[in-house]
Amino acid sequence: MTPQEQKFWDRFRSAMDIETAEPADIFRFGDSAAMSNELLDLVLSGRKRATCALARWYGPGLAPLPVAGALCVILDGDDQPRCVIRTASVELRPVRAVEADFARDEGEGDLSLEWWRAAHLEFWQREANREGFTFSEDLDALLHRFVLVWSE
Q1: What's the pTM?
Q2: Which helix (H) or strand (E) holds 148?
């Protein structure tokens, strides 16, 4: 944790009277500063209550698998801490099996499953091209629902 993240976390713990020593994770949404800021704004407005990533990015030596109740610090596009979320639920399912209610909870675009699929397939294909793997809608996605707990 950077000194700035630690100060933010300490302010959160003090404001919320929470004993938890460290957040379960610290991350930003998206793959660019602009996307991170756009998605963070949706979280802060209350519209975005879920996020999704390919399950291949989680596990030993990778990002920690979110668990219900976990507290995470969300960064903006400049990697500055902006809010704390609490994981409500986590589910693994193939990309092709994501349903409309999850697309709506992600809070992006027009909230439709069609918009969600187009945007996420494009995003994951970019990841696949960048990281050198073959994207398939049969890959498992980690569906992460959360609640906004605190922001400054």
Answers
A1: 0.91
A2: strand 140-151
Report the largest interatomic distance among the alpha carbons of the chain, rounded to a whole angstrom.
Answer: 45
State phi, psi for 112 to the nearest 5 degrees: -85, 155
Q: What's at 71, amino acid-wise?
A: L
| Domain range 3-151, CATH architecture | Roll (3.10)
Residues 6+ apart with CB under 8 A from 73: 5, 8, 9, 12, 23, 25, 26, 27, 81, 83, 84
CB atoms within 10 A of CB 102: 19
DSSP 43-103: HHHT---EEEEEGGGBSTTSBPPP-TT-EEEEE-TTS-EEEEEEEEEEEEEEGGG--HHHH
> Is the Cβ–Cβ distance between 87 and 50 less than 8 Å?
no
Q: Where are the domains of the chain?
A: 3-151
CA 104 to chain centre: 15
| Closest alpha carbon to 55 in 118, 104, 22, 97 | 97
The count of other CB atoms within 10 Å of the CB of residue 44 is: 15
For 84-118, what is each residue's pLDDT tens digit? Answer: 999 999 999 999 999 999 999 999 999 999 999 99
The HSE-up count of residue 129 (CA atoms within 13 Å, CB side) is: 6
